[in-house]
Amino acid sequence: MTGVSILGAAQTRHVGRRDDANYMELAFEVVEELLARTGWTHDRVGTVIGASSDFWDGRTISEIAIQDAAGAAGKSASKVSMDGAFALVYAAARIASGAFQTCLVVAHGKASEGNPRKIANAGFDPLYQRPLGIDDHAALGLQARAFLEGRKLSPSALAESAAQSREAAARNPNAHRRETRHVLEADPLHDDEIAPDSDGACAVLLGASTFGGVELAGFGCATDEHALGARDLGQAGVLPKAAQEAYRRAGLGPREIDVAEIHDASSAQTLLWREGLGVACPVNPSGGAMGAQPGFATGLVRVLEAYERIVRGEARTAIAHGMTGFVGQAHCVWILRRRS
Amino acid sequence: MDVAVEGRIRIPYRWPAGRAGGMFLSLLASEGRFVGSRCAPCRRVAVPPTSRCCRCHVECAETVPVGPEGTIVTWTSSPAGLFALIRLDGADSALLHRIVEASEVRTGMRVAAVFEKERKGSILDVAGFRPTGGVR
After folding, report:
1. Could you say which of A49, A61, A156, B28 would form a disulfide bridge with A91 (CB–CB 3.0 to 4.6 Å)?
2. Least Cα separation, residue A232 to chain B (angstroms)
3. Residue A29 maps to which CATH number?
4. Residue A63 belongs to what domain range?
5. Residue A289: DSSP 8-state
6. Model's pTM, two decimal places?
């Protein structure tokens, strides 16, 4: 029980390239839609948290550009340089502290502005890993092989998992439609077994539970060591720890979860993170991150998808999972619950 | 009309390697050998070495020689290169590096470091790791 609810959410359609809008305009799109849907107005929103990456945006303190869109002028606004699912922890804490009644969380990703692989390379430590030229896709390949070989699975498991995500994404009007050729990208992963680089944004409005909404029943976060060689990449790492914390705080077990939306940067991660969460429910009916990966908005979109399933009455409880860092260095698990 | 402004950010940096990292990189350069740090409480040998154990949070006073041979833990071939995590002999953590001079790569293959002739104290003083023909 956090005493905090989700009052509304909105996302853009996610595409490979949005040349018609800058990232501030992406933020405007989701904030305006959220306010229009919920009937809330900026003057009633207490505080604002952004999630953005300076490296992705190519400018420092990059959330400055989305603060105007988020209605931050005159308010206490802050940011995390992590996925939006983690920004939600910050936002919920601001409400749980009693300092604020409501908080707007805005996250965006505009992969088309830069070179995603070079930006990823810059995320590795500059002494031992970055000079080798490693990037996110190569790290996903290292993980996928460790996963397959550790469980004696055939590479077809990756293709089957990706096909399921593709089918789900095809039913999601907001998913990123892209051309893939099923060619090896980061052996054993093919291009269609790796999540796309998308342009998109997402906004979520949190409020004290007195406002109603969908309950944020619990969360758990855990961070692992940065160096790829310090972790067992074939395992779910610290995800089970984050999940256990979330289950404990929510007073729910994994078998009581109706649907899970997980941040899967590869089809190996779809399988591995499902195992790490311990759930047996449907996973990623939206297509997950394999269906659209708009930078630091990706995990927040998982929260939105989980929230909307509950609002539509398709689920009573849901997990939303976000991730930051390479191949699951840090995980954030949210449990959402319909108010009875 | 969609207008985009193009740019490129180039900013030079200088990253001191620190105490443990400085020792690691200077030994690569001067002697062409690898060292790790051993944590006294958990006995874990980290490569590259760290001045403190990331798990026990105590100073790692013991430096131990590791490698230059090791075993491939996992690997990938991607547009960015042929990479592997290599557990050097005597180490607990694995080192990320490139695989070179290989006609095929398999997990469990034994590999040995190929050192550059001219070394300057960088992870790139090692050109990569080549298969020795053995398997573990």
Report:
1. A49
2. 9
3. 3.40.47.10
4. 4-114+197-210
5. T
6. 0.97
